[in-house]
From TrEMBL:
EC numbers on record: 2.7.1.2
The name this protein goes by in its record: Sugar kinase, ROK family
InterPro entries: ATPase_NBD, ROK
Class in the EC hierarchy, top level: transferase
Signal peptide (UniProt feature, chain positions): none
Biased composition (Basic and acidic residues): 333-347
Chain segments carrying region Disordered: 314-347
Lineage: Bacteria, Bacillati, Actinomycetota, Actinomycetes, Bifidobacteriales
Gene3D superfamilies reported in the protein's UniProt record: 3.30.420.40
Domain of life: Bacteria
Length: 347
């Protein structure tokens, strides 16, 4: 990683409009810098560390690295984060309005005032957003579509809704939590307390539990199913049916212009997209309603080399900075409102 700046309060020499985005994960942390045209002009990746202080230090180090790269590329002697905005995508329960993170289990965070702490350390506007929401914003970048639903097939299964380029949080922050819609109340128990949720059949954790003999499991399931292995065929039918149902729920309830699959499970590649489209097409042949939804034509998948988490965080941070110039994530009067949160969904 490029050596970090020693100070974040240097004289401003970078033009306004620089947007920084950081995607904090349980094992790695990635950062990007976007210029005024949304081009990635700097990138940094490093291992992530556990605990509040270590997460803050990781965020500061990655930010300094990005600013150093920009400084060197533009031939300036100094770089100031006061000319930039920062968005941070992080798993856990996130109150994006106040910059609070809690129950980020994979990072050993019980509760952390990440927004205010990062802003104080870096002297720039900071927005903290749930990592799936940030990834959704990044995945929808450049599509120029009014409504996009991003379905994250990570450790869990969740989704995020982008309407007119903005993240739709809902009244409580749980908008898009389709993974906890029960589709078979007599089936497997879910960690949420229900039975038969979509997440119990179509998430990364569920696939691994159903097929523990391979890691990652889905490519192996597909290969063995094509070879005619009966248990692999059964497992594959369960997974693909679950993902197709998630797509169908999104399509029927929100009627979006596009539905994008992302998350670790999609690293399986185009074969997964083809299988889900085939399942949706088959459903359309037996249901005029499903056929009218034309879901295969709306379905897309994130490319394996796209840095949607960090890019989306940068876009979210820039939007918040424009709405509330100079405002602290902690700025508030009166009683603290109920936070807008959503569960941890490591991509």
């Amino acid at each position: 990683m490029t050596e970090a700046l020693q100070s974040s309060k240097a004289t401003a020499t970078i033009k306004p409009g620089l947007r920084l985005g950081i995607d904090v994960g349980g094992t790695k942390i990635e950062g990007v810098a976007l210029d005024e045209s949304d081009r990635v002009v700097a990138f940094c990746r490093q291992d992530s560390h556990q605990g509040n202080q270590s997460v803050l230090e990781d965020v500061v180090n990655v930010t300094h690295s990005l600013l150093t790269q920009i400084r060197q590329a533009r031939g300036t002697d100094q770089a100031s984060p006061s000319t930039a905005s920062l968005g941070i995508g992080i798993p856990g329960l996130v109150d994006s309005a106040r910059g609070l993170v809690s129950e980020a289990v994979n990072l050993s965070i019980r509760r952390m005032d990440l927004g205010a702490q990062a802003q104080a350390a870096l002297n720039m506007p900071v927005l903290v957003e749930n990592d799936v929401n940030a990834a959704a914003l990044g995945a929808s970048q450049g599509l120029d579509l009014p409504c996009v639903v991003f379905i994250n097939l990570g450790t869990g299964l969740g989704s995020s809704i982008i309407q007119d380029g903005r993240i739709m949080h809902g009244a409580t922050g749980y908008a898009g939590e389709i993974g906890h819609i029960p589709v078979d109340s007599h089936s497997l128990p879910c960690k949420c307390g229900q039975h038969g949720c979509l997440e119990t059949v179509a998430s990364g954790a569920a696939i691994q539990a159903h097929w523990p003999q391979a890691d990652p499991p889905l490519p192996d399931i597909i290969e063995k199913a094509k070879a005619g292995q009966a248990d692999a065929r059964e497992a594959l039918n369960t997974v693909i049916s679950g993902i197709a149902t998630a797509v169908q729920i999104a399509g029927a309830t929100l009627d979006p212009d596009a539905i994008i699959l992302g998350g670790g499970v999609t690293k399986t590649g185009p074969a997964l997209l083809d299988l889900v489209k085939a399942e949706l097409t088959a459903r359309g042949k037996t249901s005029r309603f499903v056929s009218f939804l034309n879901l295969p034509a709306r379905l897309r998948m994130v490319g394996s080399n796209q840095r949607i988490g960090a890019v989306g965080a940068a876009l979210a941070g820039a939007a918040q900075s424009r709405q509330r110039p100079g405002a602290s994530p902690k700025a508030s009067h009166g009683p603290e409102p109920e936070p807008q949160i959503r569960p941890e969904q490591e991509p």
